[in-house]
From TrEMBL:
Protein name, per record: Damage-control phosphatase ARMT1-like metal-binding domain-containing protein
Chain ranges of the Damage-control phosphatase ARMT1-like metal-binding domain: 37-300
Domain of life the protein comes from: Bacteria
Short name of one Pfam family: ARMT1-like_dom
Length: 309
């Protein structure tokens, strides 16, 4: 990993500070930023994607370069394949019980708020499956306490208000295995709002342990039966609209609600989401940078819209 990072940042003036600050871009000079932008422009141009002359560099965009180098060093373009396969299989076992619980809840004639509170809690449970984070996880332990956990932010009421008047919603996926728990929320939304058109975005290429179209097909995912799965075309571990395919851009533009899972999507989208009332984030805080930015604690779950804060 370090070798991959050094290969990219060896010419930067503040490389040592860059590492010490855990990818905090405030340490970069304008000259360093320009160098990185040029590397990224060339990299994406070779993949048929044209970036603007001046653009922000979220960690998720930079991660594309890092993991490209890692793949070269390892001689393996899918170093997380076995982990992803195992994560999906493990999550699928847990999912069956949660689906049965959801069916019982739906049969009780409860309010949309009560149904969706359960579904959102189970949906975010999948976000603990993250081999790209700096902390370990215990899915069994998390599954036992998720229904009682207090969220640092829990904007369910605001989310429901938008969904009630929505025709299209986009759920942007994150890690492999997490997709199994995303199904719970999608099933709940379809039961409550049968006319709602639901799209599920996946990554455009293998990166870390993020979910791709190939992963879903290889695991015979039920998502294909309950919503429209879309290969976003995005190569980074977080949705960046400029990198998306024409189809994904059009769907994203027309969506009434956007629910982005995981810190990667948060890091990529938060700045724009401040002025976009459609966007909600759902994830567990798993790194110090996001913890400090949100002024919350490691391990906290959050469900919120930056636009409403």
């Amino acid at each position: 990993m370090l070798e991959a990072i050094v290969a990219i940042f060896k010419d930067l003036d503040n490389f040592q500070n860059f590492l010490k600050n855990h990818f905090d871009f405030s340490v970069l000079t304008n000259q360093d930023k320009a160098k990185l932008q040029e590397q990224l422009r060339v990299f994406f141009k070779n993949k048929g994607i044209v970036l603007e002359s001046d653009f922000e560099i979220p960690p998720t965009l930079l991660a594309v370069l890092v993991y490209e180098k890692i793949s070269e060093i390892l001689g393996n373009t899918q170093p997380y394949l076995e982990i992803k396969t195992r994560s999906i299989a493990q999550a699928r076992i847990y999912k069956q019980g949660f689906l049965r619980n959801l069916e019982e809840i739906l049969g009780q004639g409860l309010s949309a708020e009560e149904v969706l509170e359960y579904a959102v809690r189970i949906c975010v449970l999948g976000n603990v499956i993250d081999y790209g984070s700096q902390y370990s996880f215990d899915l069994n332990l998390e599954s036992k306490k998720i229904l009682e956990t207090n969220f640092a932010y829990f904007s369910l009421e605001s989310f429901i208000k938008r969904v009630e008047n929505a025709k299209q919603i986009v759920l942007i996926g994150d890690n492999a295995g997490e997709n199994e728990f995303d199904e719970i929320l999608i099933v709940a939304l379809k039961a409550l709002y049968p006319n709602l058109e639901i799209y599920y975005f996946v990554r455009g290429a293998d990166i870390i342990n993020d979910i791709t179209l190939k992963d879903l097909k290889n695991s015979d995912s039920a998502l294909f039966k309950i919503c429209k799965v879309v290969d976003s075309g995005v190569l980074s571990p977080g949705f960046i609209e400029a990198l998306a395919s024409v189809e994904a851009k059009e769907i994203y533009k027309n969506a009434d609600v956007i629910l982005a899972k995981g810190m990667g999507n948060f890091e990529s989208m938060e700045l724009l989401a401040r002025s976009d009332c459609r966007v909600f984030f759902l994830f567990k805080i798993k790194c110090n940078v996001v913890r400090d930015y949100l002024k919350k604690s490691l391990g906290d779950f959050v469900f919120f819209s930056p636009f409403l804060q």
